[in-house]
Amino acid sequence: MPTFPDMPLTGGCLCGAVRFEVSEPPPEAGYCHCTRCQRRTGSAASAQASVVPGSLRLRSGAAQLGAWQPPGGFAKLFCRECGAHLFSGPAPDEISTVRMGAFDGDPGVRPSYRQRVATAAAWEPLPDDGLPRYDGPRPG
């Protein structure tokens, strides 16, 4: 069940160089089990929340943001100082998701799906949590 956090939501990187705020509640969140997310996070999946277009504002650290755009994939944005992974989107200037661990507090939304489970890490079985699973990207 979603909670209703105080707005705006705030967050940032490990070192504090990058700070952001989100002015509208994230509409959804999910887990990605692709190999890129595994290697980028060092974990079995990446949890990210979608943001309403135009609702995310950088409060500081724009110069510290680095981006990597893999062929055929979303841009991954991170802090150049501490390496914290923060955002992704179709292009570095089009942020569409925030890594859930980057929020200062509870963003109010809970992951509601698991995508790219065909490449899930063999060393960590998928939990039996009842969330819809998609072998590739989530449709829609």
Textual characterization of the structure:
The protein has one domain: glutathione-dependent formaldehyde- activating enzyme (gfa). It has one helix at 35-41; strands at 9-12, 19-22, 29-32, 46-50, 56-60, 65-68, 75-79, 85-89, 97-99, 111-115, 133-134. Helices cover 5% and strands 33% of the residues. Strand 1 (9-12) and strand 2 (19-22) form a beta hairpin. It has one helix and eleven strands. The protein is mainly beta and 140 residues long. The mean pLDDT is 95. The longest helix is centred in the N-terminal third of the chain and has 7 residues, at 35-41. It has an eight-stranded mixed β-sheet with strand order 6-7-8-9-4-3-10-11. It has a three-stranded antiparallel β-sheet with strand order 1-2-5, with no helix packed on it.
CATH architecture: Alpha-Beta Complex
The CATH class is identified as Alpha Beta
Question: Helix/strand/pairing class, anyone?
Answer: mainly beta
Please outline the major beta sheet: 8 strands, mixed
State mean pLDDT (0 to 100 scale). Answer: 95
**Topology-level CATH name:** glutathione-dependent formaldehyde- activating enzyme (gfa)
Q: Unreliable segments (pLDDT under 50, ≥5 consecutive)?
A: none
* Strands ordered across the widest β-sheet: 6-7-8-9-4-3-10-11
How much of the polypeptide forms β-strand, as a percent range?
25-35%
Number of domains: 1
Shape call? globular
Helix percent reads under 10%
What would a concise description of this structure say?
The protein contains 1 helix and 11 strands.
Strand and helix layout:
Elements: E1 9-12, E2 19-22, E3 29-32, H1 35-41, E4 46-50, E5 56-60, E6 65-68, E7 75-79, E8 85-89, E9 97-99, E10 111-115, E11 133-134
